Amino acid sequence: MHLFDKCRNFTRAREVMASGYYPYFMPIERSTDTEAYVNGERKIMIGSNNYLGLTHHPCIVSSRRRRPRSRSTGADARAAGS
């Protein structure tokens, strides 16, 4: 058995995605410290790394707007030069 055979043979996630239901990587339309809006519905934000509650703090928001895109470190970060 090849090392990655188990991974290649796992099809459940693709099957669920094909059925139109896949709860991961849903685009967040807008958010507050504790809530997110997905498909127009308000949801409680429990899967965030915003444990200090600083994501929407005015100083943080201002800093994000000023920083060069190449120095991004979050989930939206892009490799330098791309």
Helix content: 10-25%
Poorly predicted runs are 78-82
Largest sheet: 3 strands, antiparallel
Number of helices: 3
Give the topology string: H per helix, E per strand.
HHEEEH
> Quick one: overall form?
elongated
* Share of residues in strands: 5-15%
Would you count the extended β strands for me?
3
Task: Tell me about this structure.
- This protein has one domain.
- It has helices at 5-8, 12-18, 58-66, and strands at residues 30-31, 35-38, 41-44.
- With 82 residues, it is of the alpha+beta class.
- The protein has a 3-stranded antiparallel beta sheet with strand order 1-2-3, with no helix packed on it.
- A hairpin with a 3-residue loop joins strand 1 and strand 2.
- The chain has 3 helices and 3 strands; from the N terminus they run H-H-E-E-E-H.
